[in-house]
Design goal:
This protein has 91 residues and is an all-alpha fold. The chain contains five helices and no strands. It has one domain. 78% of the residues lie in helices and 0% in strands.
């Protein structure tokens, strides 16, 4: 049985990111920077994405975004707790 050739993940990921270029171009400059940051999250998680059985690369992009945003939320929650403890100590 002959299977179809599956492109390697990283070039496919870059192609998917490139397919969003018109959307990026339509964003305000400050939002374009955020867009680039999100795409870099997908690149950071490319190894995990290459092992995923997801046929749609956009799913991997969005999961990478969610993971990195959840990490940031966790850090912010920790900082809030630290600040609250400092405030309670001064009362």
């Amino acid at each position: 049985m002959c299977g179809r050739t599956v492109p390697s993940f990283r070039p496919a990921l870059e192609h998917e990111i490139e397919s969003w270029k018109d959307y990026k171009r339509a964003l305000r400059p400050e939002d374009q920077k955020i867009f680039d940051k999100l795409m870099n999250f997908a690149r950071i998680h490319a190894d995990a994405g290459s092992l995923s059985a997801r046929p749609m690369l956009s799913e991997i992009l969005f999961m990478s975004f969610a993971i990195e945003q959840e990490k940031k939320i966790g850090l912010l929650e920790k900082k809030i707790i630290e600040i609250e403890e400092i405030i309670k100590g001064k009362e």
